[in-house]
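Notes from hallway chat w/ T.B., transcribed later so I don't forget. T.B. wanted the structure written out for a chain they're using in a teaching module, and asked if we could keep both sequence and structure tokens in one place. Agreed to drop them here.
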Amino acid sequence: MKDPRPCSIADTLALVGEKYSLLVLREVLLGVRRFDRIARNIGAPRDILTTRLRRLVEAGVLEKVPYNERPQRFEYRPTEAGLELEPVLLTLMAWGDRHLADKPPVDLEHSCGARLTPVVTCATCGDKVEHDALTPHVRAPGWTPAGPVST
């Protein structure tokens, strides 16, 4: 069933909201680019993985690049759009580390040498984005304005 109102979250989930799609992105962003290694690392059936990779390529999130002529073999690289999804995955990972994992399975080190803790900031003022500081301005029909966001 289609979401009853226009929503960028719903549109994004339609493309990358399935488990294996996000895991493919995780692998490619971590530098695992070849089909067999991606399949082994995420545990997806080959037919499902093929479908997910094709869809991500068609959507412009990944690009399929040949690395061998005979036999013809390809690897998958993130496009600019794919790289823009990296902060989303980092934030999901950090949430899972805090709320689901006894011990985080992967630590990411930032170039400053510290363990990465992703934070969403405002591109204009640089402040950390806090829930109480957000005010939605509805521009699409089908949305009922609720006023300031509250918990």
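Follow-up for T.B.: The beta strands are 62-68, 73-78. Might be a good example for the class.
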